[in-house]
Amino acid sequence: MSKQKRFLLNEDELPRQWYNIQADMINKPLPLLNPATREPLTAEDLSHIFANECAKQELDTEHAWIDIPEEVLRRYSYYRSTPLVRAYALEEALGTPAHIYFKNESVNPLGSHKLNSAIPQCYYCKQEGVKNVTTETGAGQWGAALSYAAKSFGLECAVYQVKISMLQKPYRSSIMRTFGATVTGSPSMSTRAGKDIITADPNHPGSLGTAISEAVELATTTPDCKYTLGSVMNHVSLHQSVIGLEAEKQMKMAGEYPDMIIACFGGGSNFGGLAFPFMRHQLKGEGKKIDFIAAEPESCPKLTKGKFEYDFGDTAGYTPLLPMYTLGHEFKPANIHAGGLRYHGAGTIVSQLLKDGYLRGVDIPQLESFDAGLLFARTEGIIPAPESCHAIAATIREAKKCKETGEEKVILFNLSGHGLIDMTAYDSFLNGDLV
Amino acid sequence: MSKQKRFLLNEDELPRQWYNIQADMINKPLPLLNPATREPLTAEDLSHIFANECAKQELDTEHAWIDIPEEVLRRYSYYRSTPLVRAYALEEALGTPAHIYFKNESVNPLGSHKLNSAIPQCYYCKQEGVKNVTTETGAGQWGAALSYAAKSFGLECAVYQVKISMLQKPYRSSIMRTFGATVTGSPSMSTRAGKDIITADPNHPGSLGTAISEAVELATTTPDCKYTLGSVMNHVSLHQSVIGLEAEKQMKMAGEYPDMIIACFGGGSNFGGLAFPFMRHQLKGEGKKIDFIAAEPESCPKLTKGKFEYDFGDTAGYTPLLPMYTLGHEFKPANIHAGGLRYHGAGTIVSQLLKDGYLRGVDIPQLESFDAGLLFARTEGIIPAPESCHAIAATIREAKKCKETGEEKVILFNLSGHGLIDMTAYDSFLNGDLV
Q: Do B420 and A420 touch (CB under 8 A)?
């Protein structure tokens, strides 16, 4: 085992293909359904809202490996590989025999893993002659990444940001505006869906569900406009697989292999991105068994307390019906600071894999998440995003178990983003105002 | 010439020694003077406020190369090398034949180059049995870096932050508190110096000069406490030389050599860090001549409009007398957002080199700096710190000249930090509220 702290890949070692776990799944995800007809949706149906190529990738259960376009590879090389880091200082503070590694997705200019999918989605839109992209965002990590990617491909970008998150972290909308995007708090009066939601509840704090409804409505009522999504969908997990593919090579550089893989869980993009490339061996019955853990907030517990059923992806019911673990599309999450985890449902791939026993969910109270984030900051020097704090908290739980048992387990978690735009959350926590 | 965008060094290629330009200067900097006796200060005198080793480095005009301690090397390897990046997208937007490179010092967890000196300063304090460190900070980049470094070495940390900067960027004090530091706005009523300043001017917005006075007073009246500084002093430029030493190797990887080197200028630490390792060849009359440019704000023009004379480093007159280009230690800078550039004087090394014609200053109006920062963000995807915007503006001026003349000049500038904590400044700019 190396004593090295950081592991980086050279440009020629970067993955040149994404990994599509659907091709290797024993039970494929159930189809998306047209809510009116209950018929399975085709790629052509989906391409009315998504870029054609993304619609195709969404339903592809045949090809395990999909070539990354040259232009996307070129842009990935601007910030990838991201470092795999051994958290020696955190281990020491915990007094654990566990070996803790994290994949640091916070180091790109936009501060989170979201850029990995924003680049290809905007690339495909540009290729297909689209002029405008629209989306929803919670904490704003996806919105920030999309705003930059859109600008760099010459696309206009309109973002609906969850209202409560917009108020909690005003700098994120400033970042999106700096990259030239239009940002609107959701629910808003600018769409039919938003008006209906506000009429029913004038104080609705917004959710990813309300913001998706508004963005989809804008996309379907605007010429040359496509909708893009930062999580939940299969093609997003596909793009995010670069995280796990890199991590696999980097763990080899470190001379270790994970016993556990942990990520926070909103819709599944950072979890799937890290986990699926490792899980592919398990699906084939090969290699060492890994304990895959998705850490969700106690206040939005779809994996641990949700039901597996067909549900809408948004509040207004504009999306296809998705087969998923869900708290119901009208679920109103508490105003926790981890805005990216305030979503009622899990992606269809993760839902099927959870049903089949390949991963487990754990739920983390908000205070425990910030306790973990503070310890991580003070040891490893990186202030983590409130979302990522959930992965850190789950990691610390497991590392403490190792301390009790004396096991030298190898734990790998995903640091999905930094928390520099979330300092009001840390202020509240340090002042004792958080519950 | 490579078409590559980013150039990184392997861990075994990182510099193992700092470069001390004082040893190679033809005219050495004039001595620091005791204000009472007008006698030159010794390292022993300086060690009353600074760590002994820093005091020694400050006056070392003999050794051009100083070993970096193993523990400091280890911590550097956590985030270094920083990338050297070719700004293709910025070049394209400007339509310039110039080749623009930047050294991206914004990628470490604390967001700026300041960590390069915070680590060794805290390391030496720890080695010498010091328990507390204190400092001043403007925008808070130095304060944030020191807070983390202090925590990681088990030292207590007290920071005086310039009051106007604290109000302009509240997240920076949150960051410092997250790392366990005590943060006080300066001028404050907690020191004799602060009380005097407030009594004379109750609305004093603070300056690096007022904050230095308070921090020095705290250090000299507290047991086991040393003062640390993030710029101006020679030992800080020494530590920052890792920037230029890496950049020299990275430019070689890119197959080019700079015609111009540009950095923003507050006290001189990021400028000296990048420039001095390249300037050493010039001092020996070797190699291609480089045009060194220090970019200061129009509202704090010490290099272009200051006088070369002995002056205090702080408002209250607690520091030694420093031979430097200065606007006078009672100069009250305008409330520009580039808080790190609101300092009345230049470091003694840079001042001597400017006098001897090795570099030139340019002054940049605030609006021009944000115009440049916005273009950089929208092309290269990184929102630059308001300080760094000055270097970008100076770079753009030169790149536009190249467009006129058709010259393919190679320009290297220092991206000293990111601007994610300065989004209120970008908001004001985008709203048209800035002058």
A: yes
* All structural domains of chain A with their residue ranges: 6-13+70-112+240-430, 54-65+114-234
* Interface mutation target, options B6, B72, B78, B166, chain A, most CBs of A under 10 Å: B78
Please tell me which of the candidates A109, A379, A383 has its beta carbon nearest to residue B178.
A383
Same fold, A6-13+70-112+240-430 and A54-65+114-234: yes
pLDDT digits (tens), chain A, 435 positions? 458 899 999 989 999 999 999 999 999 999 999 999 999 999 999 999 999 999 999 999 999 999 999 999 999 999 999 999 999 999 999 999 999 999 999 998 899 999 999 999 999 999 999 999 999 999 999 999 999 999 999 999 999 999 999 998 899 999 999 999 999 999 999 999 999 999 999 999 999 999 999 999 999 999 999 999 999 999 999 999 999 999 999 999 999 999 999 999 999 999 999 999 999 999 999 989 999 999 999 999 999 999 999 999 999 999 999 999 999 999 988 989 999 999 999 999 999 999 999 999 999 999 999 999 999 999 999 999 999 999 999 999 999 999 999 999 999 999 999 999 999 999 999 999 987
The ipTM value here is: 0.93
Record: contact B174-A107, CB cut-off 8 A: no
> Of B179, B137, B187, B133, which is closest to residue B156 (Cα–Cα)?
B133
Smallest Cβ–Cβ distance between B78 and the set A5, A179, A420 belongs to: A5
Q: How many residues does chain B have?
A: 435
CB pairs under 8 A between A and B: 108
Please name the residue of chain B whose CA is at the shortest distance from the CA of residue A175. Answer: B423
Give the burial class of B156: count Cβ atoms within 10 A of its Cβ; 0-12 exposed, 13-18 middle, 19 or more buried. Answer: middle
B421 contacts on A by Cβ (under 8 Å): 171, 420, 423
For A54-65+114-234, CATH number?
Answer: 3.40.50.1100
Q: Do A77 and B5 touch (CB under 8 A)?
A: yes
Whether B43 contacts B113, CB under 8 Å:
no
Class of the B6-13+70-112+240-430 domain? alpha beta
Whole-model pTM: value is 0.95
Half-sphere exposure of A126 (CA within 13 A, CB side): 18
Q: CA torsion A362→A249→A234→A115, rounded to 10°?
A: 90
Q: Which residues of B touch A374 (CB under 8 A)?
A: 178
Note whether A346 and A324 are within 8 A (CB). Answer: yes
- Return d(Cα B59, Cα B322) in angstroms, integer: 13
